[in-house]
Amino acid sequence: MLTVSKGQEPDDFLNEPAWTDKQIVEHVLKIYRFPDATTNISIAVLLEVERILNNNDDQCHLRIQVTQRWIESKLEYKRLRDSMHPVKLRSNSYIWNPSLNIENALHLMPIGKDHLRVYSNGLVEYSQRFDNGYLTADQSVQKVPTLLRTL
């Protein structure tokens, strides 16, 4: 005879507890391998200008946030826990990530912590904030989004 505590359904005993974020990250990273050089990964880049300060006629100071998104099928974990809430990685060194270059920036300094989230379908979202992004006078602020290039 199966004894069920108050508030529990009999089926609860047959289901394993949901995987925690830590368990998912450890499992996925244990089997993850960087994509080889022939792999083509499309990246969506969102650039948000948080602040613009004109220092003089030749330079413009920006504070920006750059968010990059791409699908990395090797990071899928739907079979472990299908959830719309992502798991967070502490460092971008664990997985492949694109190198971003802003061609006309004289100096870029990261500020704050980077945020790296992985969703159950393998969508990776990587956000970074930069300060002291001086643009030279030969480039207009309106052209900033077209000056991004992933390497």
How is this structure best summarized?
With 151 residues, this protein is mainly beta. The protein has one helix at residues 21-31, and strands at residues 44-54, 59-71, 87-89, 100-102, 109-118, 123-131, 135-136, 148-150. The protein has a domain at 62-151: Acetylcholine Binding Protein, Chain: A, CATH 2.70.170.
Q: Which overall shape is indicated by the principal axes computed on the Cα atoms?
A: elongated
Query: In the CATH scheme, what's the topology name of one domain?
Result: Acetylcholine Binding Protein, Chain: A
Q: Which radius of gyration do the C-alpha atoms yield? A: 21 Å
Class from helix and strand fractions: mainly beta
Q: Any guess at the CATH architecture of one domain?
A: Distorted Sandwich
Q: Termini distance? A: 63 Å
- Please summarize the sheet with the most strands: 6 strands, antiparallel
CATH superfamily of one domain, called what? Neurotransmitter-gated ion-channel ligand-binding domain
Number of discrete helical segments: 1
Estimated share of beta-strand residues: 35-45%
Number of β-strand runs: 8
Assembly type of the chains comes to: single chain
Mean pLDDT level: 79
Roughly what percent helix? under 10%
Look at the structure and give the CATH class of one domain.
Mainly Beta
What's the helix-strand series?
Answer: HEEEEEEEE
Low-confidence stretches: 139-151
Protein name: Neurotransmitter-gated ion-channel ligand-binding domain-containing protein
Organism: Acrobeloides nanus
InterPro entries: Neur_chan_lig-bd (IPR006202), Neur_chan_lig-bd_sf (IPR036734)
GO molecular function, one term: extracellular ligand-gated monoatomic ion channel activity
